[in-house]
Amino acid sequence: MKVAVIGATGVVGTVMLNLLDKRKFPITQIIPVASKRSVGNKIKFGDKDYSIVSLTDALSLKPDIALFSAGGSTSHEWAPKFAENGTRVVDNSSAWRMDSTKKLIVSEVNSEALTKDDYIIANPNCSTMQMLVVLAPLHKKYKIKRLVISTYQSVSGTGKSAIDQLYSERGDNNSEKAYPYSIDQNLLPHCDVFEEGGYTKEENKLINETRKILNDNSIQITSTAVRVPIERCHGESVNIEFENVFNLEEVLNILRSSPGLIVEDDPGKNIYPMPIKASNKDEVFVGRIRRDFSIKSGLNLWIVADNLRKGAATNTIQIAEKLIEMGFVKC
Fold first, then answer.
1. Of 88, 90, 245, 264, whose Cβ has the fewest other Cβ atoms within 10 Å?
2. What positions carry a catalytic annotation?
3. Contact 38, 52 (CB under 8 A)
4. Domain 2-123+312-325, what fold?
């Protein structure tokens, strides 16, 4: 089993390598890939050092699986080349998410949709990902009519430059800014670029990817994405209006029995999801589960997950594991 990690030196790529080792993914040859300036440098996987190679060299090695986390332009150019070479590509960029010919997969939600013909598979946006692990089983039971989403997203969602900015500001140092303003001691209602209609690209991802994954364009969705001064984990306040009436205890039972979810919901004991507890975990945490009494069938949820783990690297690897399980990749 040859596995290539494209973007191996990046924030998510580093987590991918750690998880591949931790999860005992069946690898006989790891192929770390990064930018030209990193080629030849050493990177550790398990207890061994490996040389970083170029995309061209990785392609010639014909990996069985390629895990991409190197940006949309790289994926647009290179994912088809690997796919044409017989490699199964799982892409963590935004390049293929809304492509009608590509599957957008959350492992616990719709991985059964994968077929032997899928050679480029898209990983959802991190904020969409964690939310859909919670929403999908509820949609199946009660049918979601409308969503109001407010996200509180860590700086690692932007990348290493944003992490550097946060800690530089905390140390009263001047560094190159990833954001137009200080992020320490601040909140920025500005995730990604602004697009037509006043929504940011991140906010539109939440809307469009949710509809695609749930295969339901009738859901009415509005969103606001806010960048917060923590390194890891995204928090989300989600207000749901269902088509059908629900029983709150039944909602709790559905969530408790759903894969990939941990319910933390005991306000009387101050038990609720927090980034400090979700960091470096693969599960999605949900709590503050309560009725919205302002509408007939309304529900409020608070959702937290590690954006580098479940929001990116973990789901990418889970998709690869599913491809092996379904017999599309031989090991």
1. 245
2. 126, 234
3. yes
4. Rossmann fold (3.40.50)
